[in-house]
Amino acid sequence: MSLSTPTLTRNAPFRFVKQSLGNPFLSLRSIPFLIVLAGSLAILPAVRADAVSTIPVDAPGSLGGIVASPNRTEVYVADGASQRIGVIDTISNQIKSFIATANAPIGLGVSADGNTLYVTEGLTVSPFTGFLEAISLTSFSQLFIVTVGTSPGLPGVSSDGSTVYVPSTSSPGTVAPVGGPLTGSTITVGGRPSEVVFNQNNTKAYVSTQTKKIVIIHTATGAVTKIATPSPTDGLAILGTTLFATSRNSKVFVIDTNSNTVIDTIKVPTPTTGNFVLGFPALTPDGAFLYVPVTEQISTPPVFGNTVVVISTKTNEVEGQPIKVGQVPFQVAVAADDIYGYSSNFTDGTVTVFGLLHLPPL
User: Who wins on pLDDT, 71 or 342?
Assistant: First the structure.
């Protein structure tokens, strides 16, 4: 992303703004998608990953989705309070700019060529209308904006960049395809759909619904099938024919997409008291580790304990120590040549930078 032009002027209410660090942000809005209950762990000792730094972004209660660019030189974080996207340079681990959005951003997706950022957005007042905005990351201009279901979640972007699926968390639970053969249609999946991921050849899209089912959308026809899970799921990550789904009872389900069955359950150790929620995870580019944000309510009135858990995808076991991050981590992204991970912290309005776990040499 070139920063030679600090401000881009457009006819639409959309701009690219270079922001110096330490400037206070006065606008305060809440995003319609958040995590409030929590969990913590006791993890077997192994190679350790630690928090490195904290990047202030905006006021408390402001941050949503976070994603890395395909070349992993930048990380984008949704700042719903100020209707903008923070752009983090993964070399300096500082915010180098902001991109304004038409509405409060919630979830983010990037095309595989790194040229387009897809942003789910929502009005913060009734009727909570949802939008998908496409932003050029070369010209920083709005490519298009379309209306989708109310209170949208985290979008799924096909690997060929032709299709974006937008889940809507409002009843009856729908997914809106933008691009591809089903564009303009509405697919009912039920529950409260929160995230979508595509398989490798883009023939199927998997949707978490915050119920005991993950819905499969067959992208050629729109036909729907289901995968039963022992408890409701929120976050998804896919590795070949293996789908990982975070559950609200401190478990990560491992699903074989050939048989559409849960083949393993990874237990995130919990204390004797407290409520848990597992957020939206991310895989390392080599697929060796899954990073899962965890929030724990540890007292009343609530005080939150916040960590990121590292899971080996080879053994399906928790590795290393919990990584302490900011308040109520929403989503995790991995960038910078597998050196750093990033968690967007909803309550703090910060992004925590942490070192990634690496396997010791043989």
Answer: 342
